[in-house]
């Protein structure tokens, strides 16, 4: 099929299957016809507020059908949606809106975006506005997610790709005109991108107001999807459900269960491979900048345990501190090169790329290695590395061992100042049902060499990571320094 604008794709599905479900979030389901007409009317309302082609529209809504309606209404005007968390602190929201020079901010009251046109949560356009089709238009840059949580300084990553895709091959291993269960927070790049392209592909997208592991399994059993999106935090919370709850779920419809966005502990990955099948469970690794992308099936992973796969888009290589290419097996910084060169997949607003000297290779700050077959193995983010008495400790490795404990819901490992060793390893552990520190220390002693085990622990009863598996380690470290 020829590439189709994101606007025209929705209208096409609505014309051919008007009463089939297009979108479900919580208790709300919209048919293709309803979704198309509601986004047409909302687009006209946005246009009356001044939105035109190539504008950025900041969307600060929680997961809801309204979030998708705002994004597709934006695309129907040739503008670019710029998703942010509905819980974003005021100062950070102001900084992002200023960077984006947003024409419209959706989901906030006027006093949270001074000088900008805003619409609040629950906004409904004037019902007298027409809901018939709009002129076809393709946005020049199809998305503009934010990043910068690890540095504390927000930046916007403006995609170079225009808003047109082949509905039958929209990417991410998505099916065509099937059902996709995508329990991700929509302000994060991966669930936003995958959900949107799944709709372009005519799929019934099932999303959730918030992640509840039992509800995800219920949705897979009820809707019989071909596609399931996950992050390791979700995988862990689902796996720690009672055995009888998991056993009652019917996962046999799945053709692709893909996880991404954070490192996955090998023990957890292996359990899921055995549960859904080695050809079903897959992993994708890439940055929002998408200079390069890896993909690996569960079957490949069993032969290359711990890998995130080989590049299927662009190139990757491992570079040492002196800028030299490292041989197979040595850990260094991962540099990426887009197929069409630097700047061909994105541009930053509010930041600059990190090139390798005067070359077109760029780094996102991840550390890792490559084996002789070209498979990439992640270690951690360079800025999160803990240097303890001259020894390198990767927080992700320690977190994976902590997460394996049945009582742990989430955790974060950081380095805090130590007069003797420079840094000591501190673990923040979310164990809502309680956990004895001695029990956790014994658990880790069986899994980690002693110098990697945390020196101190802090127990909390609120999730340390969000539903996308993200954690701001640098912020946690600053708060405890």
Rg, Å, rounded: 22 Å
Mean pLDDT: 93
CATH topology of the largest domain: Rossmann fold
Low-confidence runs (pLDDT<50, min 5 residues)?
none
**What is the helix tally?**
13
List keywords for this structure.
alpha/beta, 4-stranded parallel sheet, single chain, 13 helices, 481 residues, 9-stranded mixed sheet, 3 domains, GMP Synthetase, Chain A, domain 3, Luciferase, domain 3, Rossmann fold
Gist of the model:
This protein is α/β, with parallel strands linked by helices. It has helices spanning about 5-15, 30-50, 65-75, 90-100, 190-200, 215-225, 230-240, 245-250, 265-275, 300-305, 395-405, 435-445, 475-480, and strands spanning about 5, 20-25, 30, 55-60, 80-85, 105, 115-120, 145, 155-160, 165, 180, 205, 225-230, 255-260, 280-285, 295, 310-315, 315-320, 330-335, 345-350, 360-370, 375-380, 385-390, 390-395, 410-420, 420-430, 455-460.
